[in-house]
# Entry
Amino acid sequence: MKRFLPLLIIAVVLVATVAATWMLLRSQKPGNSANNASPTPTNPVTDTPGADPPHIRGNPKALVTVEEFGDFQCPSCGVYYSELKKIENEFGDNLRVVFRERPLIPPHEHALLAAQAAEAAGLQGRFWEMHDKLYENQTTWSVATDLVPIFVDYAKQIGLDPDRFMKDLNGEAVAARIFQDGKRAHVFNVNTTPTFFVNGKEAKDDQWKPEGLREMIKQALREAGK
# Structure
């Protein structure tokens, strides 16, 4: 697979770059330094929008929004994937789900490249298809040593142009979207995955579990008069 070597090198460089940027953002977090402190946005939900447009599944005009910060290599995210699909089906048009990239580097060495694969698919209108493919096959690709051929195969399976996918995989548009979601994660102080917000309220403690998340959604619907 010599022809994939340059792409893997670029991916490694991008990992280092994003990790360094993330550390810089953390060092500038309000309260860490009196000299470097910056004001916290008055409304984090709207003032730091993340990648735009966001990836939305469900009714775009739904009364309740579940925003997930996820990592494609995270085992807990993989387990939760099927539960969240059930929740989406249960609440139907009353719910929309937004996915935000939060690759944890380290400990998940393949998380960033997986996020790139999902975002590259998104540029061809197939983000959710790749999202599902990555979670459904997490135990396979997460232990592989050469991911690019695997992800290219997934791209073909979901109907992508493989040449464009390869070009976009390490492109600026993909890197920018992951970086913007990272900024939003920083504002929300998201350090674990999966982390959920329901209409801007974080699912804390046991609320992040499926039943807790369901109750938060029901409460948000009650508040909206449904």
User: Anything to note?
Assistant: The first strand starts at residue 55 and ends at 58. Strands lie at 55-58, 64-70, 95-101, 195-198, 201-202. The longest helix spans residues 5-27.
